[in-house]
Amino acid sequence: MPPVERRDPEPIEAYLFDLDGVLRVWDGADLAAVEARAGLPPGRLGEIAHDLDRYGPALLGEVTDNDWRASVVGALVADGLKPDVAVDVVLDWSANLGRVDPEVTEVVAGIRAAGGQVALVVNSTDRLELDLVVLGLDLAVDTVVSSARTGIALPDAAMYEIAAGILAVPAPRCAYVGPHAELVAGAERIGMTGHLFDGVSGLRAIVETLSAR
After folding, report:
1. Does the predicted model carry a pTM greater than 0.85?
2. How far is CA 174 from the centre of its chain?
3. CA dist 94 to 3, 57, 139, 199, Å?
4. 69 and 112 together in one domain
5. How far apart, in whole angstroms, are the C-alpha atoms of residue 1 and residue 31?
6. Of 90, 86, 38, nearest in space to 68 by CA
7. Distance between alpha carbon 200 and the CA centroid of its chain, in Å?
8. What is the domain-level CATH number for residue 126?
9. How many CB atoms lie within 10 A of CB 92?
10. Are residues 204 and 114 in the same domain?
11. 16: Cβ contacts below 8 Å, ≥ 6 apart
């Protein structure tokens, strides 16, 4: 039997990052405070807002972010809130854009400084680009791929492939960093290296390892 040919791993030239749970952090206490002021049970606003029948079309760009949030107002009214209270709840909730993790952005900056490319690949509404400007992330990456613009969502293989195509880097030379196992698995299925984000120390370690290839 002939010896099995051993191939060295592909060098990594580009990184695909998710936003929420990686670069952007949400404080659950903020949402809880909005709910408490309106007399809503804990978790109720999130349950209504992210109901798949309501949120799904916004993620795919079939309705706008404003349309989605207006539908949340309507659902809160149907749930028993007065219209003016429901409007205030959604305005308060919408004003919170989360916060950027400076340690993760430092890793991203280091990748780019070393000659690598970075894409954000995100399931999001059409407000994503505005959020990135406000958060100061619009110039922190080389490109942004949003489900609201493509009409498809992670973990559909096409989302990863679109990002790799824009960066002109083949999938085996890309690494994906995300907060959910199913999204990491989606990247791995098309030949990318996947990393399940569990903190900045693990991220630094995997980037260092991949950079040494």
Report:
1. yes
2. 17
3. 60, 18, 23, 26
4. no
5. 63
6. 90
7. 16
8. 3.40.50.1000
9. 17
10. yes
11. 118, 119, 120, 121, 160, 163, 164, 174, 175, 176, 177, 187, 192
Domain that holds residue 108: 14-25+99-211
Residues 114 and 174 in one domain: yes
Residue 3 has pLDDT above 70, yes or no: no
Give pLDDT tens digits for 121-156: 999 999 999 999 999 999 999 999 999 999 999 999
Residues 88 and 145 in one domain: no
Evaluate the omega torsion of the peptide bond into residue 42 and state whether it is cis, within 30 degrees of 0: no
